[in-house]
Amino acid sequence: MNDNSKVVVALLAGLAAGAALGILFAPDKGDETRDKLSQSLKDLGDSIKDKAADEINNLASLKDKVVSSIKTKLRSVEEEYSDDVEHA
């Protein structure tokens, strides 16, 4: 996990904890409090899913760049090797 991901996870955990504490200490009925807590947790889950999807897309893009770079370098080495073999 890189530093940015750790910061985002810590931020989301802090927000969830703050929201949960705020809801639990609010002067609402038990049913209302549970509904609010449930909604807050659902929202947190949705934001985590969105962040995970973004990170997966970033990783897929990085993988494509790395694979492309490796293929380009391999072609270059193959061409140099075949040129050396032809001139030998």
From TrEMBL:
**InterPro entries named in the record:** Desiccation-related_membrane, YtxH
Note the superkingdom of the native organism. Answer: Bacteria
This protein is called Gas vesicle protein
Q: Source species, please?
A: Pedobacter jeongneungensis
